Amino acid sequence: MTRPRVVLVGPPGSGKTTVSALLAAALGVDVRDTDADVEATAGRPITEIFVDDGEDAFRDLERAAVAAALAEHDGVLALGGGAVLDAGTRAKLAEHTVVYLEVSLTSAAPRVGLDRSRPLLLGNPRAQWKKLMDARRPLYEEVAAISVSTDSKSPDDVAAEILAALGRAEAAR
Ligand SMILES: Nc1ncnc2c1ncn2[C@@H]1O[C@H](COP(=O)(O)OP(=O)(O)OP(=O)(O)O)[C@@H](O)[C@H]1O
Ligand SMILES: O=C(O)C1=C[C@@H](O)[C@@H](O)[C@H](O)C1
Ligand SMILES: [Mg+2]
């Protein structure tokens, strides 16, 4: 059965896209990112989808992209930061090896900055990020068997920690 080796979840700026590429290189597998899949399907950047069609329309595209990637991809998979908001997606993730990349507001703020490519953080990014995390932290914790703090760690350190945790999880099976 085809299934991702590992699925990364976490808020904007936790490093899902960055770390997934490092993990895939280390494991010698392909990397896939549902944000890129949504953009390819829509033929537009995520910011434009939010502005033109609204968040609900984006979430519908995201739900379909996540379902397809979970069924088709056998490498490392990075999910969009809000993919866990969908209950059906969370139920699917129960069957997968999911890693939650934790990050504090202090560490995330300089990473996401005022980047306009993150529509949910427009306005006051720090306040938006905190509100978003208060709602999502329990959801990330619910779906992930492994949590890795990324504060004060380089992307290489985070990838190495995940590889070690995956090795321990496989040895325990
Ligand atoms: N451990 C880290 N330490 C410092 N900077 C990092 C770390 N991980 C990622 N970054 C930087 O933070 C920024 C955001 O990283 P990235 O795009 O990988 O996050 P993401 O979780 O995929 O966000 P999104 O949910 O918006 O897709 C990038 O500029 C990246 O280089
Ligand atoms: O946290 C979120 O809700 C988002 C994160 C990004 O990965 C994108 O999926 C989009 O900008 C929404
Ligand atoms: Mg990303």
From TrEMBL:
SUPFAM superfamilies: P-loop containing nucleoside triphosphate hydrolases. Signal peptide: none annotated. It is found in: Cytoplasm. Its cofactor is Mg(2+). Binds 1 Mg(2+) ion per subunit. Pfam families: SKI. PROSITE patterns: SHIKIMATE_KINASE (PS01128). Gene3D superfamilies: P-loop containing nucleotide triphosphate hydrolases. One of its GO terms (cellular component) is cytosol. GO terms for biological process: amino acid biosynthetic process; aromatic amino acid family biosynthetic process; chorismate biosynthetic process. ATP binds at G13, S14, G15, K16, T17, T18, R118. InterPro entries: P-loop_NTPase, Shikimate/glucono_kinase, Shikimate_kinase/TSH1, Shikimate_kinase_CS. Keywords: Amino-acid biosynthesis, Aromatic amino acid biosynthesis, ATP-binding, Cytoplasm, Kinase, Magnesium, Metal-binding, Nucleotide-binding, Transferase. Pathway: Metabolic intermediate biosynthesis; chorismate biosynthesis; chorismate from D-erythrose 4-phosphate and phosphoenolpyruvate: step 5/7. One of its GO terms (molecular function) is shikimate kinase activity. Mg(2+) binds at T17. Its EC number is 2.7.1.71. Its main location: cytoplasm. Substrate binds at D35, R59, G81, R136. It catalyses: shikimate + ATP = 3-phosphoshikimate + ADP + H(+). It comes from the Bacteria. Catalyzes the specific phosphorylation of the 3-hydroxyl group of shikimic acid using ATP as a cosubstrate. Belongs to the shikimate kinase family. Monomer. This is Shikimate kinase. It comes from Beutenbergia cavernae (strain ATCC BAA-8 / DSM 12333 / CCUG 43141 / JCM 11478 / NBRC 16432 / NCIMB 13614 / HKI 0122).
